[in-house]
């Protein structure tokens, strides 16, 4: 039986979470970056100081799909000293990110998990509730919960971060959904205690509810936590590249999660996704024979074959 594999539910733009992808993307677009942005990314304090002394534009706009301002680049790669140097030079803390990345300096810092940098940015006026960018974006709180940085999550909540902020339009996740997707049980527990809405609908494109995210990644513990918090086991999935919780668990072959969802009333014959696929069809499409057999024995209707892919997994 497949085990839970956390944080592999969506394709995300380059972040600190995957340096190899980030470096490849940056190498392709280095010619689009200013010298100061590259020096900040590389952590070259001497060059940063030299460029600033020579009058380099500390607020040059990001270019390319995943461009960053100098400050955002320093935050993304964890260069705290350079972050402070750039802020001293009047870097715009709340400048928007690149075309697709669209992450502020604080949002980037929350991915990395450097609490000192996060606190410094907030002290200097960073907006803790800057919205998530349209494509794969995260608010600061969503970024911190996804990365599993409990202390930063607590700090952001203390500073008034919106626990139920709207997720990005493409592959968006609420703070609770991000924590559930990555099996961060302590953060899930904290967010539920602080009033997180367990039933925020998924974003239209590649979105997931918190329960769907947990089911997709096979965390029975998180699934149970969300069910106890009254998560809707039959909530519709995203209209594009999504499905109900049962479809999600079926797609990945998480038998124990499938069984649990059925126990609490998941409708095995409901349809979801393009063309309206049942859970048994979804399991068949992904080659999950054990789930197909389980659903068939439970009385699932419809063919155990055919259809389109519902999830990017």
From TrEMBL:
Gene3D superfamilies: Ankyrin repeat-containing domain. The keyword Nucleus does not apply. The keyword Cell inner membrane does not apply. The lineage of its organism: Eukaryota, Fungi, Dikarya, Ascomycota, Pezizomycotina. Keywords: ANK repeat, Repeat. ANK repeats lie at residues 31-63, 66-98, 101-133, 136-168, 171-203, 206-238, 241-273, 275-301. This is Ankyrin repeat protein.
């Amino acid at each position: 039986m497949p085990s839970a594999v956390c944080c592999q539910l969506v394709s995300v733009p380059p972040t600190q979470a995957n340096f190899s992808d980030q470096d490849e993307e940056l190498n392709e677009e280095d010619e689009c970056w200013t010298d100061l942005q590259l020096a900040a990314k590389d952590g070259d304090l001497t060059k940063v100081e030299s460029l600033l002394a020579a009058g380099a534009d500390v607020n040059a706009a990001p270019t390319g799909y995943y461009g960053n301002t100098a400050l955002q680049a320093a935050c993304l790669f964890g260069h705290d000293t350079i972050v402070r140097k750039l802020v001293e030079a009047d870097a715009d803390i709340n400048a928007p990110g690149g075309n697709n990345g669209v992450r502020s300096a604080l949002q980037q810092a929350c991915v990395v998990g450097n609490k000192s940098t996060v606190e410094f940015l907030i002290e200097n006026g960073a907006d803790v509730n800057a919205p998530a960018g349209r494509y794969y974006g995260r608010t600061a709180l969503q970024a911190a919960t996804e990365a599993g940085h409990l202390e930063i999550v607590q700090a952001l909540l203390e500073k008034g971060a919106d626990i139920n902020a709207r997720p990005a339009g493409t592959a968006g996740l609420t703070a609770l959904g991000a924590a559930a997707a990555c099996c961060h049980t302590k953060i899930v527990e904290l967010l539920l205690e602080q009033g997180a809405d367990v039933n925020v609908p998924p974003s239209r494109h590649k979105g997931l509810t918190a329960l769907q995210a947990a089911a997709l990644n096979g965390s029975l513990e998180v699934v149970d936590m969300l069910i106890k918090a009254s998560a809707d086991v039959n909530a519709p999935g995203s209209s594009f590249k999504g499905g109900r919780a049962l479809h999600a668990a079926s797609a990945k072959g998480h038998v124990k999660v499938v069984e649990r969802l059925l126990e609490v009333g998941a409708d095995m014959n409901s349809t979801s996704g393009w063309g309206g696929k049942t859970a048994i069809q979804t399991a068949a499409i992904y080659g999950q024979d054990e789930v197909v057999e389980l659903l068939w024995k439970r009385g699932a209707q419809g063919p155990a074959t055919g259809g389109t892919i519902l999830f990017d997994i």
